[in-house]
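assembly run, all chains below
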Amino acid sequence: MIYFDNVTKVYGRDAVALENVNLGIEAGEFVFLVGASGSGKSTMMRLILKELEPSSGTISVNGVKLGAIPRRYVPKHRRNLGCVFQDYKLLPNKTAAENVAYAMEVTGQKRRAIRTKVPQILDLVGLKDKLDAFPGQLSGGEQQRVSIARAFVSQPPILIADEPTGNLDPDTSVGIMQLLHRINRIGTTVLVATHDREMVDVMRKRVVALEAGRVVRDKVRGGYANEV
Amino acid sequence: MKSSNWGFFLREAVKNLRLNMLMSFTAITTTAVCVTILGVALLVSAHIQGIIRNVGQDVTISAFFPENASQETIDGILSSVQGYPEVSESTYVSKEEALERWKETFSDQPDIASGIGSDVLPASIELQLNDPRDSGAVAEKLRSEGFEEGDLNYPQRTIDNLNWYTGYMVWALRVATLLFLIASILLISNAIRLSIFARRKEIEVMKLVGASDTFVRTPFVLEGLVQGLLGASLAAVVVVWANSLFVDWAQSYLFSVSSESVNAFGLMLILIAVGVLIGVAGSYFSVRRFLKV
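ok done. output:
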C-alpha cells in the first residue's frame, strides 16, 4: 500500500532528514512510526502526502509512483489519504460539521450526500452534540476527533496521522487511538507517527523506529523501546 | 468544474466577506480611493481636452472695414471670403449690429452702453475657421484683399501657444493617468494580498485535504470581484457626482467647460471595469502564491 524504496531526503544543502529508507506497509496494516523529534517521522508523512519531494529514491502509494504524479493530480492523490495532524488543522471559520463537509465538497459530492453523511460520521467519533461548534469552542481532544472525522469521511484506503495525540492528555489520547484502531479494523491502512511511548506499548502493533533518518527497527507486535 | 459547485463557491465567498469584514473593508476602501483618484485624473483630462476643443472651435478672425468703405467693396470682399476653403462660416456685422452687441456686453453699465453712437463702431466680417492652424494663412489672404494689419483681429500667437501646450498637456495627462492606474493596481492588489495572507493557513489546510487549486481559488476570486465591484461602484458614483457639481460651478464662472466633454455613463463603466478587473486579478495572483503546498 505504501512503499519507500531507498528514499533519501536532504533539506537545503546538508540537513539529512531521511537516509536510504526502505519500508513496505501492506493493505490493512496498523503501523506506528516512532522516534525522537527530528528523527524524520514528519518528513515521511509529508513525503507520502507529496507535500515534499524526495531527494532520491521512489515512493509509491496505492500502487502509484508519487514521482510520476503531475502537480495537477496531487489533489486527487490526497483524496485517497485521510490525514490527521498534531495541530488538527481545522478551518477556524467553519463549524465542526462544515469542516467535515469541506472534505466531501472538495471531491464534488452531492449536497444531499453531504448532509446525511456528516452527522453520521461526527456521531461515530462521539461529537453528535457539537455539529455547530467552531474549533475555538472545542477542546483539543474534540478538535482531533473532528479532524479524524474529516480524514475518514470519504473512506480513504489509507489514513495517516502525524502525532495525533501530541497535544492531548493521556486519557484523551486513549480515546483518539481507539478511534484510529476502529478505523483500521474496518480495513483502512493506518500509519501513525508518534512518540507516545505508553500508547505504543499498550497497542502491540507493528512498530517502525527511526533514528536520525534511518530505520533502526521494524517489529510486528512491538513496543516503543528496544526489547530483549 | 461542476456547475453544482457554484452555489458552494458563492456561499463561501459571501460568508468569507462577512467573516473577514475588516479586511474586506480595507480592500473595498482602498479600491474606492484609488479608483476615485483615477476617475478624477480621467475627468481632468477629458475637461482639458474639451476646453481645448471648444477654444479651438471658437477661433474667429475679425476683419474691420475702414470707415469710408463703400458697400460695393464690402460686398466684393464678402463674396470672395466665402470662397476661402479654410473658412467654415462667415458673418457680416454691420455698424448697427456692432452697437447692439456693445450695449449687450455692457448692459449692466449703462454709462458705457449709452455713451456712443452707431457711427463709432466699425462694420466687420467674422470668419470661423475649420482649423485654427489656418488662421495665419487666412490673415494673409485678407491682407491681400486690402485690409491693414491693424484692422485684423486674429489670435495667431495664442493659437500657436495653445497648440504647443495642448500637445504637452495631453501627453502629460496620459502619463499621469497611467501612473495612477499602476499605483491603483499595486495598492489594491496589496490590500487583497494582505487579506489573503492572513488566511494562508486555511489555504494550506484546504490543499492538504485534497482541494484542487481551482477549488481553493474560486471563492477568493469571487471575493475579489465583489470587493472590486463595491469599491469601484462607490468611486464611480462619487466621481460622476463630483463632475456634475464641477460643471455646474464652472459654467457659472468659466468659459468653455461643458458637460459634453465627459460621457458620464462611459466613465462609470470604465471605472467599475477597472475595479473589478484589479479585484479579480489581484486575488487570483495573491492566492496563487499560497497554493504551492
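Residues 90 and 130 of chain B are 11 Å apart (CA to CA).

Chain B has a mean pLDDT of 81.

not gonna interpret more than that til we talk
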